[in-house]
UniProtKB/TrEMBL annotation:
GO cellular component terms given for this protein: cytoplasm
UniProt entry keywords in alphabetical sequence: Transferase
Organism: Actinomadura darangshiensis
Keyword Transmembrane helix set for record: no
Presence of the UniProt keyword Transferase in the record: yes
Positions of the N-acetyltransferase domain: 1-164
Protein name, entry field: N-acetyltransferase
Single annotated GO MF: protein-N-terminal-alanine acetyltransferase activity
Amino acid sequence: MRLRPVTEDDLPFVERLRTDPELSGPFLWEGWFDPGRLRRRWDGDRMLGEETGNLLVAGGADRLGLVSYRRVSTTARTWCWSVGISLMPEARGRGAGTRAQRLLVEYLFAHTIAHRIQAETEVGNVAEQRALEKAGFTREGVMRGYSFVRGRYRDEVLYSVLRTDVELPEG
C-alpha cells in the first residue's frame, strides 16, 4: 500500500467517496454539499495546498481511500496538522487505515516542520480508535459536543502523535 497525489482521473472516485452516504459510513456522512467543490479544489491546488491536502490511498492499482490533513493553529506562532481518513467499505477492517495513517504521519513529519499531528474521531468509532493507536497515536481525551453529524452534536476522542514519538525511515 502507498499514498500518492490525487490525479484528475481519481476525481470521480474521490467525489463518490466524499458524497455517497453509503460509502462514507456511519461516522463521516455530514449531508449533501456542492458536488463541484472537489473539482474546483483540484483545479486550484491539485488538492495539495499549504493549509490542507489530500492523498489517495492505493493498494496496487486499486483506489482504497483518501487521507487528508489540514493546518490547525495552536498559538499565534505554532500550528499542528489534523488528519483524517475515508476508506472504501471493502478496505475497512484489514489494516489499511492503520497503515495509511502511519504513512501520512511519516510523510508530514518528513516534509513539514510540524511537531504535532492530531486526529479526532467519534467516540463510537472504536475501529478508528484502534487504528489510530496501532498507527502510534496517543489518546488524549474526549471533546464533548465537538461535531455535528446526523442531526445532533457528537463527542469526539482526540488523539495525537508528536515528532519525538516517531522514528522516521532513512532515505
